[in-house]
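COURSE: Structural Biology Practicum
ASSIGNMENT: Worksheet 4, Part C
STUDENT ID: 0417
INSTRUCTIONS: Below are two proteins. For each, the amino acid sequence is given first, followed by its structure token string. Answer the questions at the end about the second protein only.

PROTEIN I
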Amino acid sequence: MADVRLSGVRKSFGAVEVLKGIDLEIADGEFVVFVGPSGCGKSTLLRTIAGLEDLNGGAVSIGGRDVTGLSPADRGIAMVFQSYALYPHMTVRENMGFALSLAKVDKAEVKRRVDAAAGILNIGDYLDRKPKALSGGQRQRVAIGRAIVREPEVFLFDEPLSNLDAALRVRMRYEFAGLHQRLGTTMIYVTHDQVEAMTLADRIVVLNAGRIEQVGKPMELYERPANRFVAEFIGSPKMNLIPAEVIEAGGGQVTVRTATGAVMPAAVKAAGAKIGDKVTLGVRPEHLSTQGPGGALTAKTTFVETLGHATYAYLDGGDGEMLTAQLDGAERPTQGQSLTLKAPAEKVQLFDADGRAFERA
């Protein structure tokens, strides 16, 4: 097991700078997930840790050892890709032990490691099968097993569940969490799916345009996003963001008015807020309700999803603003119905003109 440290990591492809000075520390045994939109640099960052991409600046260390100039084989890492990349003519046992055989590891040791990995992944009954006789989930387990037998210091996963159907992705998320608990090895995982990030990570690293926007525990990012980008990216359905103007500030609260005239108080520190400032009001769908305290928004229902435990109402808030509200499953608004939606002040977030979050009161 080992910690991972990135210092000023930069990577360019021609004139395009993809990573713009990444500084990050990952603790020994931690499960860290990189998330961000397509093209943000998350897979490139993982590949720089693996040694599959040369750096244009900065350094990478694993277990206190500078590995910046080392080949992937000498870094003590094992990587699992989106593609299973199994040899079709080999059995599961042969696929899992192939790298060890190439390294001239004793046959008895290869068997021991393969059997141990198969036991961890519950694929012991498939060791004599070939990949074509396996399901997608079973093939992914074999790919993971091939990494486990190398007994690496760090596991790297590059969108390993992208080729699986929705139900199997849910099951495999559970298995990844269990795998980390059993092995206790440092794991770095790249995904575009923020649900995977929220359910698997000890900490999430949110990347945007080659820079880190925020690093923190899943609920820290959800409840206290550092800026508008993180607030909008983390959460499904995403946070409602509404342009507004400050009309009152003081006493541990800032009150804003939207373009449609709705007045909403937010329990944030008033330092730096002045009457007339342009801000963005943020409120998550589950914090909007038709009852309770707080400021109120009036919006017209345009579409309704009834899921049993919850009802999702999609609404036209006026002035081009579309809103989403997560209501109790017993509520069934109809299309065209006008709703008055309230949000407690402590659940309302504000972002300044540069997108930075106001500090909570």
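PROTEIN II
(use this one for the questions)
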Amino acid sequence: MQKVIGIKFKPAGKIYYFNPNEIEINKGDYAVVETARGTEYGEAVTEIKYVTDEELVAPLKPVIRKASDDDRKIYLSNKEKAKEALTICEKNIEKHNLNMKLIDAEYTFDKTKIIFYFTADGRVDFRDLVKDLAAIFKIRIELRQIGVRD
């Protein structure tokens, strides 16, 4: 059995389990956690509980800290910057005449990467787009194709 807390990153998103360590965190609190994508900001949607090893996806990543007011400001600032990035990316998609529809953009909490989500009927060669975006934003760029249901 492992001690975990369930964290969500989007209102209708999936719940991911994290190791709360010795951090006192309750349902409804916000936390900064370590994920495979980097540092992220999310909401605790469960109380701290114990689950069997079979229910977990190994390795269990840690909660770094309970989110502060400064963390919330960074999160909100990242959301605003992501809106600007969405507009810039849309202009570049038109410039490259790519057959893709941009859906969303998000910065990782630590601003080391920006992820653009898009839909397209087939495969899209967006290598030149990524080069242009990397030159503009000067951070790592990731484009993820999602299905209509996502």
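ANSWER KEY EXCERPT:
Q1: The first strand starts at residue 2 and ends at 8.
Q2: The helical segments are 69-95, 127-137.
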